[in-house]
Amino acid sequence: MRSRAATALILTTAFSLSLSACNRDRERDGPLIGGEEQIEEEPVPEDQPRKSIFRDDLQQPELEPELLEPLTVTVPFGDADAAMSEEALTELRQALDSEQFESGGTIVLRGHTDSAGRDAANLRASQRRAERVGEWLIDSGVDAERITIIAMGEQNPVEPNALPDGTPNEEGRAANRRVEVTFEVPEGARVRQDEPQVGDAPALMQDQAL
Predict the structure, then answer these.
(1) pTM of the prediction?
(2) Edge-to-edge order in the sheet of strand 178-183
(3) Can you identify the CATH homologous superfamily of domain 71-183?
């Protein structure tokens, strides 16, 4: 009996010493949560600058501007002696303010007619219409050396000149009497990009606190 009492006393003393050691370690290392040590984040001073979520050493790739495409304006003619409409003149004025015109390329004038009349007469009529547009461009300050005139006659209609029963298609013929003004662009010309304005940066590019 005395031996068992001594053994129990020894075990109790050992347990107490072990528990005391654990308490001392916890007081030294701080409380544990879920079996892991709790780490408190240090507060960030208010006057410390905020950090960006983007790395300074990584630059966004610049997108290459799109290729500049030629611009075509159609000038209709009601008949052989008709003047250009105000609507057509407005489109031409807008074309003179375009990037295509400013690129300095050739301006091609293709004159067209309907199928009425002889082929030779239609060819001359298409030439006169293209020349009339060319004269207007020159009067508007365009260098004559940039202008090329091509008389197409009745070769390339955009609408049928006759109805299915063979009678004249007046609306179609009126559409075919035209001059197509094409502002060509130099090879490799690209769309002009405006300089970015201050404050135009996307919201994601602004500094954010971590």
Answers:
(1) 0.63
(2) 71-76, 178-183, 107-112, 147-153
(3) OmpA-like domain (3.30.1330.60)
